[in-house]
C-alpha cells in the first residue's frame, strides 16, 4: 500500500467518524440551549433540560419500564438462543438447515410486518397488549442474534476440552455446565448487551403491542408530535451516555473473560 493510498484511507476513515459523531455532538449541545426551539446560534446555556429529565415522572417511569422489558426479554432470548445454538452446532441431521432458517427469520422480517404479525398472534392467543406482549415480541426478535453470536463462539471451542471432561468421568450435563457454558459466557454477555440495546430502542413492536404505559421510545415519539425541543435532546443524550457505559462495561468484561479463558 502506497503512502498516498494510506492517506486516502485515513481521510475516509476520519470523515466517516465525523459523519457519525457530529450529529450526536450537536444533539448533546441542543440539550443545553436556554430556549424551547431547536436551532443555532445558542445564545445562552442552561442545565434545566437535563435536570428536568430526572424530575419528570413520566420519563423516569418510561425509562424504568423499558429497562425491565429489556432485561426480561434478553434473559428469555439468551436462554432460548443458547439452547438452540448448542443443539445445532456440531450436529448434522435432517431439517437442520430448515430449523436454523426459521430461527433466524425474525431478524430479517421488516419491523412493521413483524409488529403487525405479533399483534394478530397476541389477539388470537388472548394476550392483552402490555408489558408481557412486548417482552414476548422482543424476545423472539432477539433470539436470532443470540444464536449467531453463540454459534460463532461455540465453533471455536476445542474438542479436547469436552474430551478431557469426559475422560475425567463427567457426563454431558456436567460437561456443559463446567466446560461449555463458561467458554460461552463472553459471547453470551456480548449478545445479551446487544439484545438489551435492541429491546430498549425498539419502537415499532412496543408501539403496536404496548398498553397504556409507554416505553421510552414511544414516549419520545409522543413528545415529538408536539414539536422538537431541547427536552428531547436531553433525554436522548442521557440514554446515549447510559448505553455507552453499558457497552464499555460489556467490552471490558468480554476481554477479561476471554483472557482468563486463554490463560486457563
Account of the 3D structure:
The protein is mainly alpha-helical and 264 residues long. The chain has a single domain (47-263), classed as MetI-like (MetI-like fold, Orthogonal Bundle), CATH 1.10.3720. It contains 11 helices and no strands. Helix 1 (3-30) packs across helix 11, helix 4 (96-108) crosses helix 6 (131-154) and helix 6 (131-154) packs across helix 8 (172-201). The model has no long low-confidence stretch (mean pLDDT 84). Keywords: Cell membrane, Membrane, Transmembrane, Transmembrane helix, Transport. Its main location: membrane. It is a multi-pass membrane protein. InterPro entries: Bact_Polyamine_Transport, MetI-like, MetI-like_sf. This is ABC transporter permease.
What tags apply to this protein structure?
single chain; 264 residues; mainly alpha; MetI-like fold; 11 helices
List the helices and strands and how they pair.
Layout: H1 3-30, H2 48-55, H3 57-88, H4 96-108, H5 111-125, H6 131-154, H7 159-167, H8 172-201, H9 204-209, H10 216-224, H11 230-263
Number of helical stretches of at least 4 residues: 11
| Topology-level CATH name | MetI-like fold
Number of domains: 1
Shape: globular
Subcellular location: Cell membrane
GO cellular component, one term: plasma membrane
Protein name: ABC transporter permease
Main location: membrane
Amino acid at each position: 500500500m502506497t503512502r498516498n493510498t494510506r492517506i486516502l484511507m485515513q481521510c475516509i476513515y476520519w470523515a466517516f467518524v465525523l459523519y457519525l459523531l457530529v450529529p450526536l455532538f450537536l444533539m448533546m449541545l441542543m440539550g443545553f440551549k436556554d430556549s424551547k426551539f431547536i436551532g443555532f446560534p445558542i445564545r445562552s446555556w442552561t442545565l434545566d433540560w437535563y435536570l428536568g429529565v430526572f424530575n419528570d415522572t413520566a420519563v423516569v417511569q418510561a425509562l424504568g419500564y423499558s429497562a425491565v422489558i429489556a432485561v426480561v426479554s434478553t434473559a428469555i432470548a439468551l436462554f432460548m438462543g443458547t439452547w438452540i445454538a448448542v443443539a445445532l452446532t456440531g450436529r448434522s441431521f435432517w431439517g437442520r438447515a430448515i430449523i436454523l432458517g426459521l430461527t433466524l427469520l425474525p431478524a430479517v422480517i421488516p419491523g412493521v410486518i413483524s409488529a403487525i404479525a405479533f399483534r394478530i398472534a397476541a389477539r388470537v392467543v388472548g394476550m392483552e397488549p402490555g408489558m408481557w406482549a412486548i417482552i414476548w415480541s422482543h424476545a423472539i426478535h432477539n433470539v436470532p442474534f443470540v444464536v449467531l453470536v453463540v454459534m460463532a463462539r461455540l465453533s471455536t471451542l476445542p474438542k479436547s476440552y469436552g474430551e478431557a471432561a469426559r475422560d475425567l468421568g463427567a457426563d454431558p450435563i456436567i460437561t456443559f455446565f463446567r466446560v461449555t457454558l463458561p467458554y460461552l459466557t463472553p459471547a453470551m454477555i456480548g449478545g445479551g448487551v446487544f439484545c438489551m440495546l435492541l429491546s430498549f430502542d425498539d419502537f415499532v413492536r412496543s408501539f403496536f403491542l404496548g398498553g397504556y404505559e409507554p416505553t421510552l421510545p414511544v414516549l419520545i415519539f409522543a413528545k415529538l408530535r408536539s414539536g422538537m425541543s431541547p427536552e428531547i435532546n436531553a433525554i436522548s443524550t442521557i440514554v446515549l451516555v447510559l448505553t455507552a457505559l453499558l457497552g464499555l462495561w460489556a467490552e471490558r468484561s468480554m476481554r477479561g473473560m476471554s483472557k482468563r479463558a486463554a490463560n486457563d
